[in-house]
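MODEL INPUT / OUTPUT PAIR
PAIR INDEX: 1
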Amino acid sequence: MLFDFHFKPKFFEIIKTYNRQKFMADLMAGTIVGIVALPLAIAFGIASGVSPEQGLKTAIIAGFVISFLGGSTVQIGGPTGAFIVIVYGIVQQYGIDGLMIATLLAGVMLILMGVFKLGTVIKFIPFPVVIGFTSGIAVTIFSTQIKDLFGLDISKIPADFIDKWISYFSNFDSTNFWALGIGLLSIGIIQFAGKLIKKIPGSLIAIVFMTVLAFVLREYGGITAIETIGDRFSINAELPKPQGFVLSMELIIHLLPPAFTIALLGSIESLLSATVADGVTGERHNANTELVGQGIANILSPLFGGIPATGAIARTMTNINNGGRTPVAGMVHAVVLLLILLFLGPLTAYIPMACLAGVLVIVAYNMSEWRTFRSMLSNPKSDVAVLLTTFLLTVFFDLTIAIQVGLLLSLLLLLKRLSETSTISLFKEDIPIADAEGNLTEEVLHIADGIEVYEIEGPFFFGIASKFDEATKLLGNKPKVRIIRMRKVPFIDSSGIHNLDNLIRMANDEGIQIILSGVTPSVYATLTKAGISCKLGKEYICSHINLAIEKANSVITKSKDMKQTEN
């Protein structure tokens, strides 16, 4: 049933058997994840066109709610790189109020997705679409960090991808080599320090080291050319407070497409993260509850000044690797971030912007999936077309358009493949007999004169419906009985029903009896609901081909008897 959805957050399941030992493990894992999330929350906030404080608020509020009300035991939520492009675009066009409304709308959409039990459906979004827009987002994130990485003197960066790079090349002569050095050194530290020191993330090591170095250079070396977060933003070390915003129907209508993109991205990333986590922990997440939890988080986050949030694979895996096994670890991670904001928030003002650019360059590299992208280029041409189309639209146009077009292309290709795999076979003399396992035997079932048997293999939808119509019209002599064998038809859509209804009506006009054979229970229920079984007559819907042949023979015999009586 569609509305038998039950909201079952994992927290309320595990709390019944929770103990001190589990809490100590969650406390350790949550503390480590909170420290790991700190630089990412700040970097994602700035790259999204908002303040670092808003990135932290998102990780605190949404991170807590996703763990508390989500459908996964180990999911860690917060701002992610996938949202940077869409959030930046909304902020530039509609401002912070527009971002708040879009995030709220996305939250409502996520809740509806969960209530209507679309969690399992979302997992089947075509892989070329996911890789296409993920790689496209990675390229876009990288391109947005060039200014801070090189310390370029550009007052306003163009939004268009090509214009952005034209502006970069025109201003490379203004490169700040102090900033470039810090950025490149940060990248090097992240890449190599993380491998040497497993327990501490390379991004945190880079930020701490570079912040101390920048402070020393500024205070004692007289180097003032290194821009820091404090030069561009001010961070208030206080509890998140409710934020007001202006709501209008016109703005809501304009923001529906980007809100849908946020909801779709959030659902894909969170369910992918939860699925990966299940493979490691052996647990099983509730996809629909997870979507509802994500939706509530994305409604509350903007009300306190936050931005969109979703499940983060890297932070979730960090949680698992450090012993986190219940939602309490994710809640601890949010509390740790809150304490950092309250007591250490002012210190983040000394973090160099070039260092954060280096962090995001690594994030973009990890998101790019370039090895997977390259290997997919040898896939069937249709998949490559979807991959490249989604990728290029993401980079050069808009993420919302890219997802919509990518999904549309995938749907069209899927329908094309389904219609190609669905076949119609005509038998007029003998029918091969299969055993219980579906293997053909040497036996055949004889078909009497005046009977035709059509076997449909595959879904009876609009693609095959036209084929079936063409197949029946090509034959010259009209039979007395036409048997439609449907044992290999998993479902029938409205076009198939319409086609079947027309076939029955025209057959009645021409004196041809239609008999259905091997109809599966699900297809039979659809036919009954559509009134086909009543129109045809339930006695002409047979469970097996042998019964259908017997029924057809009786129709032929009855027809002959009537003719003899007339004569």
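PAIR INDEX: 2
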Amino acid sequence: MKKRFVRLWLVGIFSIIIAFPLISQSGDNKTSVSKTRVNLEHADKLSFNKSINEKAQVLVGDVCFRHDSSYMYCDSAYFYRETNSLEAFSNVRMEQGDTLFVFGDYLFYDGDSQIAYLRNNVRMENGQVTLFTDSLNYERVANVGYYFEGGLIVDSLNQLSSFYGRYYPSTKQSVFNDSVRLENPNFTLYSDTLEYNTESKIATILGPSVIVSDSGTIYTSKGWYNTVENLAILQTRSTVISGTKILEGDSLLYDRQTGYGEAFGNMSLQDTVRKVTLTGEYGYFNEFDDSAFATDRACFLEYSQGDTLFLHADTLRMVTIDSLERRISAYYGVRFYRTDIQGVCDSMYFNTRDSILYMYTGPVLWNANYQLYGDTIEVHLGDSAIDLAHVKEFAFAVQQVDSICFNQLKGKDLKAYFEGQAVRQIDVSGNAESIYYPMEKDSSMIGLNATQSGFLSIWLKDRKIDRLKIWPSPKCSMTPIPDLQPQDRTLKDFYWFDYLRPTDKNDIFVVKKRRQQDVPTRSKNNKFAR
């Protein structure tokens, strides 16, 4: 694809090069004109009739004029020898060499300026290119024909119409202004200003434009479109709409045949049906296999459940399995924020079918004053809030009571169940350990309770411990607050990672590293270390 992109840019540069003649070959060309005489080659009848035209010869029947290498034919004419000009009527035809032919109902030709003014049913033919209009001026020296009251140019593939237009037969370049319309078998392009080469079939977009097809719509104001290969390079902030997806970027590459779109700078890919958006400084998508990629400040937004999930990583990929399932993979430095949950990890996977976030390598999850971390975390998202957080292999849950007191749960497997946006129950299985601070009704601490068991369940109410169940063969101890030693206040592998926590949707882009003392040593029973 990179080779194709380079090739497209070269095509674009080529279109600029071939457009350079437009600068010198304009209607205001100042090149001196060699003044030669217009010659009458033949006519069936020649006369002077002052009642008709006192300054002209009146010519009738099979009239032919020659000026240098150009020939002009008509049924009748007025020939003004003194001013080196003529008027031609009916079945007018101009021939410039053997490649350019111009037809019309009326012609005024000025031999000194070498400009032909053709009117009514005008047709200019140049190989496979035909220009239709009712008002055409043709400058022989600059070799340009231009219309100003509406015209149409047709080649072997496209037809282009506009109110104003110019065509250069030698370079095959044309310029269109005002109400421009390019019609192709696969699409229609509407523009304010457009250049087009009838040989390369490349359209150069120079003004606000819309490209409409059965597969979608493109909005842009500057770029190139190869109408043969259906390839577009769009330079200004542009938009490609394909079905339910909207791709935007400061510059875009779009291949309509393969369904491939590539965006550079402020990329945004939105799926209006699935209600997800992918952003970054660079990205691409394929409309046929429904895959997408983003990097450099990459962000995934999911807003199907009311509250928006903002997720950032170095690299994001999206793949669609079927109409109901989309899989998102995030790599390196994952940080996400939603009002009810926040999290960090090294890599993450999200499935829109079951709405589960899979967090890998050093995952940490926060909800209000709760923190979960472990080897792997699965976050089950409900319609409007989190339903369940499942911490596997090595699991640790922390609830902050105050600046130095933390309720803690630890085990091999942990499930935290949510009601609304609050934790209502936590189940720990496998080497379950806990320390927590029981409270009096006035919220004063009784002491520190420590337990060990195979399994543990805890129920919470108003974010406080309501009930506790431990089994089988539990070991319990209570230490009064005055007797607590610093080492009594935490379980092994306790860490408080609040400084890593994303605080809002913009904070997900802020790089925050773990302190050295908060990086656990990897062991058989603790895979949380990076």
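PAIR 2 NOTE: The chain has three helices and 38 strands.
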